[in-house]
Design brief:
The protein has about 120 residues and is an alpha+beta fold. The protein has a single domain, classed as Gcn5-related N-acetyltransferase (GNAT) (Aminopeptidase, 3-Layer(aba) Sandwich). The chain is built from three helices and six strands; from the N terminus they run αβββαβαββ.
C-alpha cells in the first residue's frame, strides 16, 4: 500500500504550517509538502498515476514556493521520476541517496532544482 508506515502525525507540522496539500476524490489520490524552497514530498496513489494529479500538486507547490519569495525550488527525485520533474523545468544538480525518513532502505536519488523567472 502506498501509505504503509505513514500516519497523520508524520504530516501534522506541515499541515499546521499550511505547507501540505491533498488531491482527493472519494479517496486520497495524492499529496505534496513543501519545506522552505524544497518540495519535500510528492506522492500519487499508484492507480491514480498518469491522470495529471502529480502535475497539479507540483504546480501548487511551485506557486507557493515562488510566492514566498524564493528564487528557486529544490527536490530529491527518484531515478524513475527525473523525466517528470525535468518536464517542469527542473535540472539535475547532483546525486545521492534518500535523505529523509527513518527507513533503513537506501534509495538512489537525483538532486534537482528549478529557477524561477527573474532569478
Amino acid at each position: 500500500m502506498w501509505l504503509d508506515g505513514r500516519s497523520p502525525e508524520t504530516y501534522r507540522e506541515a499541515i499546521v504550517a499550511g505547507n501540505f496539500w491533498l488531491a482527493c476524490t472519494d479517496t486520497l489520490q495524492g499529496f505534496v509538502e513543501i519545506d522552505g524552497h524544497e518540495v519535500s514530498k510528492l506522492f500519487v496513489r499508484g492507480d491514480a498515476a498518469g491522470q495529471g494529479i502529480g502535475a497539479r500538486l507540483l504546480l501548487e507547490a511551485l506557486q507557493r514556493i515562488e510566492a514566498a519569495g524564493h528564487s528557486k525550488a529544490y527536490l530529491e527525485a527518484t531515478l524513475t521520476a527525473e523525466k517528470f520533474y525535468a518536464a517542469f523545468g527542473f535540472r539535475k544538480i547532483g546525486e545521492g541517496t534518500f535523505s529523509r525518513g527513518n527507513s533503513p532502505v537506501s534509495i538512489e536519488i537525483i538532486k534537482m532544482e528549478r529557477l524561477f523567472q527573474g532569478a
